[in-house]
Amino acid sequence: MRSITKAILVGGGVVFAGWVGWGIYSTKKAKSVPYERLRTLNGSELRRYPQTMLVETTAPNQRTAFRRLFRYISGANQSNESVSMTAPVETQSGASIAMTTPVRSDATGTDAETVRMAFYLPAEYTPDTAPEPTEDEVTLVTEPPKTVAVNRFSWYTPEWRVTRRTRKLLSTLDREGIDPKGEPYLLRYNDPWTPPFMRRNEVAVAVAEEN
């Protein structure tokens, strides 16, 4: 019996180590959207982002939204170019585009009737070079440079946790006299197989420019 228990513990330890190893590997290999850190605010942070390109969709649920966007970066676009993989996505035809983290969605969209989700495209893409989607439900979006406030957290992103973090961020901005612009949204940086304690999530909202 002791031998069986020991074997189970050893096997579980190997699986856990492999899981953590994957989390480290996938996190390091993913290219993130660049930004300038301006200052910290009681556990939150102000950042300055350059102009960014996103591919976006609105769907009945997160799975449908994610699949549409994944099809786009896997070749469901009107370009014939070949793009070197940053986070590898292999395709048989058409263009393949690196999936840049984070994945963006409405901050409270987890359990809503619809969810708007977007993938950030690699920095080398511009409004003139980003390939057009072939699906009507998928669109390209150009975001101008902006200042954003974020609050970072780990583990999974159920609606109650996202809501709590969003309230904390908005409360911090209110105390600092900083005005939000638009609605908060959720940023997720990891693939679904990353251990929850290694995940990076952020609630974010654009804010008025500081003098």
TrEMBL record:
Transmembrane segments: 7-25
Domain of life, per lineage: Archaea
Pfam families, sorted: SOUL
First and last residue of the signal peptide: none
UniProt-listed Gene3D superfamilies: Regulatory factor, effector binding domain
InterPro entries: Reg_factor_effector_dom_sf (IPR011256), SOUL_heme-bd (IPR006917)
Keyword annotations: Membrane, Transmembrane, Transmembrane helix
SUPFAM superfamilies according to UniProt: Probable bacterial effector-binding domain
Name of the protein described by the UniProt record: SOUL heme-binding protein
Organism from which the protein derives: Halorubrum aidingense JCM 13560
Lineage start: Archaea, Methanobacteriati, Methanobacteriota, Stenosarchaea group, Halobacteria
